[in-house]
Specification:
Radius of gyration: 27 Å
Number of strands: 0
Structural class: mainly alpha
Number of helices: 7
Length: about 200
């Protein structure tokens, strides 16, 4: 009768011929290190000079993996700003990208993106005002109806009215979708640049 092998023995037999690829491991570690450096930079713990130095010290596939790790983190952060503070963070993001993208066309691309992001914030404020003005008559009518029914004056917060919220979201989503194309295009172009 044959001996019954344990799962561990079977697994060891199957992986007997597998050897670690030192180059792949180095690239994996370099990519992780690049991600870590990019996150530190965005949090204020690293400078663009540190990013540049790390890239200068590396060579070949390791350098490429290090830059790719940084680029992935930075590209993931390219988004539309929610407020002025987020707009300022885009400047930091641009400086980080500039440290790893040596292409002379990059600064112009980033300036265009920052201008579009600032325009988005302006358009958002204008859209909000326009939405409020457009919905105001309906809101006053609802307030008058409630005041008549309850016998006292009632004020409704527009964001507590489900109809207003749906109207608001529909219009703001339309605006955002117009600008999302710019975000996606910028991410694509950043990925296309080689360091």
């Amino acid at each position: 009768m044959g001996r019954i092998k344990s799962a561990l023995e079977l697994a060891l037999e199957r992986t007997e011929d597998v050897r670690g690829d030192k180059g792949s491991l180095e690239q994996y570690e370099a990519r992780r290190q690049g991600s870590k450096l990019a996150n530190e930079f965005l949090e204020g713990g690293a400078s663009s000079a540190m990013l540049e130095t790390a890239l200068k010290k590396a060579s070949g596939a390791v350098k490429s993996a290090l830059a790719e790790g940084m680029r992935e983190v930075f590209a993931a952060r390219i988004s539309l700003p929610a407020d002025e503070k987020a707009l300022k963070r885009l400047d930091t993001l641009g400086r980080g990208l500039q440290a790893i993208i040596l292409d002379p066309r990059f600064p112009a691309l980033w300036k265009q993106f920052e201008a579009a992001a600032a325009r988005y914030l302006d358009d958002t404020a204008q859209y909000e005002d326009a939405i409020m003005r457009q919905y105001a008559p309906q809101l006053r009518q609802k307030e008058a109806e409630l005041s008549r029914r309850l016998g006292q004056e009632v004020r409704i917060d527009p964001f507590q009215d489900p109809e207003f919220v749906a109207f608001y979201r529909k219009n703001m989503d339309t605006l955002k979708s117009n600008y999302e194309a710019i975000v996606q295009d910028t991410r694509r172009q950043v990925a296309d640049f080689s360091s």
